[in-house]
Amino acid sequence: MVVDGKGRAYVGNWGFNYESGDKPVTTTLVCVSPDGSARAVADQLLFPNGCVITPDGRTLIIAETFAGRLTAFNIADDGALHGRRVWAMPEGGGRPDGICLDADGAIWLASPPTREVLRVREGGEVTHRVAVNGDAVACMLDGADRRTLFILSTQLFDRIEGRRQFNDFRRLRELRAGRIDTLRVDHPGAGWP
Q1: DSSP structure string for the chain
Q2: Could you say which of 51, 86, 168, 192 has the lowest number of CB atoms within 10 Å?
């Protein structure tokens, strides 16, 4: 979810029962206005997850986790989305989960399966890779000058016989298996969040 400068929240969802092992299906992105009304503003998204809005408030970029891509939309004055396009499919793989935007217009994305955070330019060029001791699920540029990259990681995957298999989320909650690491970076954060 991301909230824009006008107080509108853009909310993604799984679209299927992940914990029960259902196969992924496409779903919608919902815009919730400050008055509480809600409407679908995009459809056919494959797990719309982390999202950012550019500093000018005119572009929303969303991580479609199970599609392995970042998708961009233009934002109309009324909050509607149009002009859908692939913003990037990260070079060398990576599956975007949580994301944040920097002042140079690049996106930092957490990639649980590759156990890293990537800095990606529009078009897919990866300029930085940060290895993480665990499965990176979210990242954010913050701090006094927004040059501190906060990285949330956990143990989402069991690594058995070279295969990756998702753990049971209830078990993760019981274990409280998460950590936050920080890293100073050259490019400060921008936009929302």
Answers
A1: -EE-TTS-EEE---SS-TTTTPPP--EEEEEE-TTS-EEEEEEEESSEEEEEE-TTS-EEEEEEGGGTEEEEEEE-TTS-EEEEEEEE--TT-----SEEEBTTS-EEEEETTTTEEEEE-TTS-EEEEEE-SSEEEEEEEESTTS-EEEEEEE--EEEETTEEEEPPHHHHHHHT-EEEEEEE-SS-B-SB-
A2: 168
What φ, ψ does residue 38 adopt, rounded to 5°? Answer: -135, 145
Place of tokens 């107080």: 7
The model's pLDDT over 24-37, given as tens digits with 9 standing for 90+, comes to 999 999 999 999 99
Dist. CA 152–CA 131, nearest whole Å = 12
User: How far apart (Å, rounded) are the C-alpha atoms in residues 28 and 40?
Assistant: 6
- What are the structural domains of the chain? 47-184 (2.120.10.30)
- Rg over alpha carbons for the chain, rounded to the nearest Å, is 16
Q: Is the peptide bond before 193 cis (omega within 30 degrees of 0)?
A: yes
pLDDT 10s digits, 92-143: 878 999 999 999 999 999 999 899 999 999 999 999 999 998 889 999 999 9
